[in-house]
Design brief:
The chain has 163 residues and is an alpha+beta fold. It is built from four helices and five strands, in the order H-E-E-E-H-E-H-E-H. Strand 2 and strand 3 (70-73) form a beta hairpin. It starts with a helix and ends in a 17-residue tail after the last helix.
Length: 163
């Protein structure tokens, strides 16, 4: 019986070592990926939320916005602020992917619907900056609001059958 107990103790120790090693590798991988994403995100964030920082969780989801000395959980922010931050994080990821040589267009479909006039102007600056590194495609029904964004405008035309 003593031999079985010793084997069980060794198996538990081996499993704990495996768990700890896998957790350390996962944390290292997150850290190695998170730092480059945050480096690419920061310039866009500064254009919209001067002096602010964000905290991303282990799943790379937004957790906190730190601005003016206050750390605000994402879920208490306004819809507009959360939407803008989500777009900015995507810009950071898009730029990181684009720097690997992989085409990485960012597609926005009726984004920024909750943005006030001042904030949308700042968001447009970030989108224009991002467009220097990768393609940004914005679908919107708000033609006048998005006109200052610039870029190439596409229009859908009625289909005509060839005779």
């Amino acid at each position: 019986a003593g031999n079985h107990v010793q084997q069980a103790i060794e198996q538990v120790a081996a499993l704990e070592l495996l768990r700890d090693t896998l957790a350390a590798v996962a944390a290292d991988n997150r850290s190695r990926f998170l730092v480059p994403v945050m480096n690419r995100l920061q310039p866009y964030l500064a254009q919209v939320f001067s002096g602010a920082e964000v905290v991303l969780g282990d799943d790379f989801g937004l957790q906190l916005l730190s601005r003016g000395g206050n750390r605000e959980p994402i879920d208490v922010l306004s819809d507009g602020t959360r939407e803008q931050l989500a777009v900015l994080v995507r810009l950071g990821f898009g730029r990181l992917i684009a720097e690997t040589g992989t085409p990485a267009p960012l597609i926005l479909d009726d984004a920024l619907v909750f943005s006030d006039d001042d904030r949308i102007v700042r968001m447009f600056r970030s989108l224009q900056s991002a467009s220097q590194h990768h393609q940004v495609i914005a679908f919107t029904c708000r033609e006048a609001t998005f006109a200052p964004l610039g870029g190439t405008r596409l229009a859908i035309e009625p289909w005509r059958a060839k005779s």
